[in-house]
Amino acid sequence: MSETRTSNSGEYGKAAAPNQKRYRGEIKLVDDHDNPVSGMTYWVDNQETRDKRVAQYTGISDADGVIRLENLAYSDVTLTIDAQPLADEMEKRTLKSKWVTPYQMKMTPAIPDTKTKNIVYQVVIGQLCNSIPKQEIDRQEVANPSQMNKDEKKADQNEGAVEQDKKKVELAEISFHFPDPQFSGLTIAAMYLMEQQVVVKICPFRAWNLVLHHQKEYSMVNAYNLGFMANITYEKEEFFNRFMKNFWDLSTIPSLKNDRQLFYAVVKDVPFSEGYTVNQFLNTDMPKGGEGDSQLFYIANNNMILVSWRGSQEGPDWVSNFTFRPIPHQLELEDKKGFVHKGFWEAFDIARKKFGEDFDKIKEIASDKKRKLFISGHSLGGALSVIHSAVLKSYEPLVYTYGMPRVFTYGVVRQLQNVMHYRHVNDGDLVTFVPPQAELDSKMYDIWGSLGTYYGTWASMLQWISLSTDIDEQKKNELYVHHGDVVLFFKAQQSVVYNIHVPENNEDAMQDFTIRGTLPLEAKFYLVSTLSEEQYVQSEVCQRNFVDCADKQSLREFFPAYETPTRDSIKNPLHHFMPDRYIPFLNNQLIELVDTKRSMIRKDKRQEFIDQMKKHEIHLSKDEKKRNQLFISMQSALQNTLTVTQELQGGEDALSRFKQTAKEDVEK
């Protein structure tokens, strides 16, 4: 006879019954690639073990990852595994694509395998662990130092119980890998386990990292991911904190959105202990009413640190962009010649002084030779990124900026040639043209005292307008110039030129006329100057020659007054916006490189543009034809910028993940 429960709780509800039939069951532990997870110490409990009628089932998973259970009563079982060995092993395992969501794991814990028909439980290690592994304790100590200190002090009150209390301490927050603070184990239904093998598929104990390459050569994935992070700087701190939590969640991919769609970061899965344990959001305006309005964040792990600066957002930021006053630079450079934009320097200096400890921490992290330094920013944020890179010059920063204004004069820029910097410009982005490339150290800045910046700026603009193309060599150090290698998003047009002969009034003589016009189709090109430097220089010459040979009437036709210009040589503030202009173009270009067979509007437009060139070939301007052919060639060369990612361990998986989630957005 045996004893059977007739209720779920309490001492009552037990009744004598005939001996139950005994079963055997198997549990197979596998990773995301269906490779066995062997050598794991396990404990299995059911109602009989909890009632102390039989001993707890325990052992080690065999070479095939199998746990064999004999002489089981028909009862649900609970599986737990020794936490630290499991965490250490699952850190080494990689992810296929991305994991199922916590909601899916909760609502549909068991699913049938379509091939073997076995039942599969998809779990994270926290559903199997019997305690908190060291990696999670370390992460929480960094993320929540005050809370963990309280827990340790409490544990110290009980002599010899510190380590035990650490293992049992409640998690500061429910996280993806640890959804159960009580570590209750995985319950497997009796109906699945009896006389068949149940598969427990364990999510790798990993975290997301941005795919970034610290190298001199241009990388398309760098451009996309660093632009992506530059865009995050415009968000509130609450969003940033939620966003960073997603790097610990393998069921989702960190994303941002504009008013049309989501954009997904290019990420790879790395061991949990290599996740971003450092992430700090800084805003000089907080608490509300603080000095300035500079905003940035930095994130770091064992092998890198990224600093991103916010661009122009409030009115004072735009005033900073469009006041030209230069002041002597205060950088630690050999030559003290040269100037820096006053407004940009002050915006940087306010942040550096207010968050001195954080800036020291950035330096400390960057000084570790194992950690590579990345800096990014858009607009004003790009200017602050370049200033920060000049300050951190000795730490070999890699800088990617988007729509940034000029920040230094030539005297400074020539001393920063070793700073790796790619400067992205979207067509006629107005901000990239200011301050103008001119010597603008007007005396008005000093004469008018507190109003000097206002009057000095207008005086500088008059100087700019009347500036001669012949630059005095002595003034060269005082000219605002751009730093870095340009990456240009160029919207190209096709112009046709017709030469006709018209008889003069009632005379035999003929009069020659030249008629110029613009063909209707345009195409936008992604031009990286360093990919084919010789080609780019030649193309720039062609562009200049074409404009020089056109008369004023033709220029007015190409660039009609009071209308949005389509040529990159005309300044347009609408070309400046990061989520609406830069991010979509970066996103679409990466999709085109990753998914070469995908049908895309941008590819169709470019092909139509090429067909238009062929159709009107005999009437095209010679210089413009040559220029556009070079642009087509440079566009094709972009495929080379993906090689470094494809050769990276986990790089192909990262690109495949992006390919599955990314969608083409509207290009304006």
From TrEMBL:
Compositional bias segments (type: Basic and acidic residues): 149-161
Annotated spans, Disordered: 140-161
Domain Fungal lipase-type: 307-437
Record-level GO BP terms: lipid metabolic process
Domain of life of the organism encoding this protein: Bacteria
Pfam families: Lipase_3 (PF01764)
InterPro entries: AB_hydrolase_fold (IPR029058), Fungal_lipase-type (IPR002921), Sec_MonoDiacylglyc_Lipase (IPR051218)
PANTHER family according to UniProt: ALPHA/BETA-HYDROLASES SUPERFAMILY PROTEIN (PTHR45856), FUNGAL LIPASE-LIKE DOMAIN-CONTAINING PROTEIN (PTHR45856:SF24)
Name of protein: Lipase family protein
The species this protein was found in: Limnobaculum eriocheiris
